[in-house]
Every structure is written in structure tokens, then in C-alpha cells.
Protein 1
Amino acid sequence: MDKARRGSGLEQLLALVRPEVEAETLRAFGLRMASLAVRHADPGLLRRGLLAVGLASLRSMDDRDDLRALAPLWRTASLLHLDPSHEFTAAAVEFPAAGTFLLGWVDRTPDSQDLVEMGYRESTDEDGFRYAEDATVHRRILEEDFARRPRIIRLLLARRRRRWLRENGFD
């Protein structure tokens, strides 16, 4: 990200990013940067994470995944005693292509920016602070989404739903 920022620009980086697979990688990078920023009290890591998730939002198929990735970054800004609104706005200015997406997060209600509501919790491991995903929130979202679908679609998706529940310990 730094090389792209110094060189030919973040806009040209889009040409190198294949949809969805790379978007997921960028979201994971953003989450990792959020955790590391807290561990090292480094706002620069937070900013890298914001730009990565902003870039992912331009390539992904589902905005919900991108929105979820912003919750840990928002919380990280608070933990670093920074103004989250200012950090997100600065990232939007630096990367205008993702500006609408990043500023949309700033305009959300506090409840819809909540870390737990977005499926994460603060945790620690042997390396220190980290954000962990909360599968119970994913299950609630999956169930709500599944219930809204027409019956024929629910039948077609039933196998995938059962597999996800089994893989995540919700037998």
C-alpha cells in the first residue's frame, strides 16, 4: 500500500486486484492492521487498514462484508484516542474512489457501527490484542437472510446453510 501511495497511485492498484478473492485478502489485511495498530499503538497501521478495506470495497461482490471490516478499524481509532470520524474522512480524501463507502460508515448510527453488532469482539492471544470473529452473530445474520428468501431459493441454499452451520459448530 505504501509503495502504491508513493508510486503511481492507489487508483492503478485496482487494475491488479481480481474481484472477490483479493477483496477478501484486503479485508483480512485491514483486520490484521486494526489489531496490530492497537498492539503497537500505531495510527499508521490503522490508516493502512482503512485504505485496504476501501480498496476491497471497490472490488467485492457484497458490501456487507466490507462494512463488517470497518467496525474493528472504527474501534481501533477510539482505542488509540483518535477521532474515528476524522480518520475515516482523511482516508476518504486520500482515496477518493472509496470515499463514498468510507464516509457512509461515518454517517451510520452508533448502534450500526458497533463492534459486536458487526460480528467481532476484542480478544487476546499469545501475541496480544486482536479482533476475533463471533460466529453467533454470523449465524443470526445467516438465519435472518435465509428466512427472507423465497421458498425455492431456501431449498436451493439449504445444503450450503447446513454445511456452514456444521463447520461453525452449530449442529
Protein 2
Amino acid sequence: MKKILLVLGILTTLIVLIMIYINENITSPKSRLKQQFNLELKDGQFSIANEREQWSPNGDGFYYVEINLINDFSIIKEIQSKFKSLPVKEDFPGNSVIGNVNNFQDGYYSIGTIESDPTTFKIALYDSKKKKIILYYEIL
């Protein structure tokens, strides 16, 4: 009986550690920005202002996050070299979760489709005045 409890305790601990790893390294805003746009934020140099996520059982949905930058000038230089200057010139599908992107006039953006599906897209906006990154992607 003690062996069974020990094995169950070890399995429970492993499952909890795996869930913590997934939450911190795969589904965090920092890791999503790295996965989607190849931008890496330094720990302690940003704060999450707003984060929303909604997914249907069929896989459709969206992810939205606002990231405030705190003295991270290296990421700003990286954004300037990889992104295009605002205002956004391309049209893109999707709903109004990110609002009117034309409100962003001073900064940079990157937009693209995911898995070459025209109804699926991703966009990252950097607002130079507010020192804020907005990451949004949608799968329809």
C-alpha cells in the first residue's frame, strides 16, 4: 500500500511540474511572442497589461495580449529592424477584438497568416508612445 501511495505521489508531482513548465514556457505571453514573431523579452523588463484568450472545441479562436515594456531598449531595436512602420497598410481578416489598428500611428507592426490560411492571421503592434506591444492571433 505504501508503494502505491509513493508511486501516486511521484506521478502527481511529475504532472504538476509538467503543467508548470507548459504554463511558463509554452503558453506565456513571452513564449508566444517568441514563437509567433521571433522576439524575445527579458525577464523583469515587461508587464502584462491585458490578456484574453478564447478557443472553441473545434480549434477556432483568438489570443490577445498587451505587454508594457519597462526599460527594454534591446527589444525596441529588434522590433525596428524586423517590423514595418505604422500605420498598417495591409487589410486583414478577423473580428474587432484588437479594435481599430489605425489608432496606432507611431510605432511598428508585423502581420502575417498562419499555416498559409487566409482566414487565419497574426499581428503584433508596437506603440512607440506608450511603449506597449500588442500581440493578437486568430484561427478561424
Protein 3
Amino acid sequence: MDNGFIILSIIALLFLSIYGYTYGSIALAKIKQKKAEKKELMLEEIRLEERKRKQAIRDEKLRKQNKRREEINHELKLLEEMKLNNEKLNKMRVEKMKQKKVG
């Protein structure tokens, strides 16, 4: 009877070790899967932050470009006005000179 109890406990220990090995590998796979998901979420978050940073840089460049465009347009308008004023001034001078010659 004593030997039967030892054999029975060895068989039980064998089944427990098989169950533990099987469950352990499943648990390990779940842990690895959770780690991979966590890593993927972290990478996605990093990608999102990078996209936001790059978008902010693009927005800043666009803002500067639009500001420069407005400055150039303003300068062009001023030059055009100066040109018109010079033309008017020249016409007035020509008219004065004509009046001096006539008069």
C-alpha cells in the first residue's frame, strides 16, 4: 500500500507538472501579447506626437510664408502708388513748363 501511494503521488505530480507547463506557456503567451500591445500603443502614441510636431512646423512655415506674401504685396502697392505719384508730379511739371513757355 505504501508503494501504491508513492506511485499515485508521482502520477499526480506528473499530471500537475503537465498542467502547470501547459498553463504556464499560455500565461507566458498572454503576457508577451500584452507587452506587444503595450509597445504598439506606445509606438502609435509616439507616431501621433511626431505627426503633431511636424504639423505644427508646417503651420508655422505657412504662417511665415503668408506673412511674407502680405508684406511683399504691401510693398508692391506702395511702389505702385509712388509710381503713380511720380507720374502725376511729372505731368504737373510738364504742364507748368508748358504754361511758362506759353505765358
Protein 4
Amino acid sequence: MDSLVLLKILVVLIIFIWIRETLRRRRRKRQDPGGAISQANARERHQWRYVRWVFILIQTAFGLYMLGSLIQFLLR
């Protein structure tokens, strides 16, 4: 019984760290040095934008699935 409580505490800690790191990554802003390299990077990001959107969508769906599974585990 004690190991189940310890596992649930560990899951809560992992969820907290995961959410904190996700929000922290979104708040960081990249500095734009300007120049030719910056423009080439912008063109490349623009060309790959749909692939990035699909990847972000899959990542979000998987994250929500994992979060739901962890919450179900905690409520058992």
C-alpha cells in the first residue's frame, strides 16, 4: 500500500515538472541577430510550417492522452 502512495506522489511530481518545463519553454524568446542567416532561417521555417504543425498536433494529442492516463491512475 505504501508503494502505491509513493508512486502516486512521484506521478504528481512528474506532472508538475512536465507542465512547468512546457510553460517555461514557451516563455523563452529567441533573439534575432538579423542578417542573411536569420532570413534563411525564416524562409526554412516558413517552408516547413505544415510539418511542424502536424508534429505539434501529434505531440499535443499524445501529451493530453498521457495526462489523462496519469490522472486516471491518481484517482484509482
